[in-house]
Design a protein that fits this description.
43% of the residues lie in helices and 14% in strands. It is of the alpha/beta class. The chain has a single domain, classed as 3-Layer(aba) Sandwich (Rossmann fold). 26% of the residues are buried. The C terminus is likely disordered.
Length: 175
């Protein structure tokens, strides 16, 4: 199989933000099929929404029925570009959505790849520490950022836990 020319069906969370719209346009141009899970379909520009390779499922992060529909769309790739709004105090709605969605994606049997875009404020054990980094995270993101740090950390932890579950389920590496 020619990996570079492989076409995918991608389920995208966060498709109406700046990165999501740029990604959607590029993926459609490359010939992929996309299913966007969005709160507000009207944010999708007409030149994208009219593309026959684009499907839209409207739903909120807490909408389990819409999440079930999204997980059953047949996508072989799941990508989340959703991120918290800096400064807001709204808990961890994206993480809560991932906790609903991940088991559904595993159960559907079609999803082979999962990619979550976050920020660099989640530290992995192998990361090198610096005073500048420590100050930026602890005094800017944690204090001024509202629930952003909590959301980003929770998203990362849930995704790392999913990776560990996948490794336990299969001898094939998913990374």
């Amino acid at each position: 199989m020619d990996v570079q020319n492989a076409k995918h069906h991608i389920l995208l969370l966060g498709g109406t933000g700046i990165c999501g719209l740029i990604f959607t346009e590029a993926a459609l141009r490359a010939g992929h099929t996309l299913t966007l899970y969005v709160r507000t379909p009207s944010k999708i520009p007409p030149e994208l929404s009219s593309n026959s390779n684009l499907n839209v499922i409207q739903g909120e992060f807490h909408d389990e029925e819409a999440m079930k529909k999204a997980s059953g769309c047949g996508a072989d790739v799941f990508i989340s570009l959703a991120g918290p709004t800096l400064g807001k105090r709204e808990g961890t709605p994206i993480t809560n959505a991932l906790c609903i969605l991940y088991p559904l994606l595993l159960a559907n049997g079609t999803t082979k790849r999962i990619m979550i875009l976050s920020t660099a404020s989640y530290s992995a054990p192998q990361d090198k520490r610096s005073l500048k980094w420590y100050m930026a995270i602890n005094f800017y993101v944690k204090i001024i950022g509202g629930d952003s740090y909590k959301e980003i950390s929770s998203m990362a932890k849930e995704t790392v836990a999913l990776g560990r579950r996948l490794i336990g389920l299969s001898s094939e590496s998913h990374y």
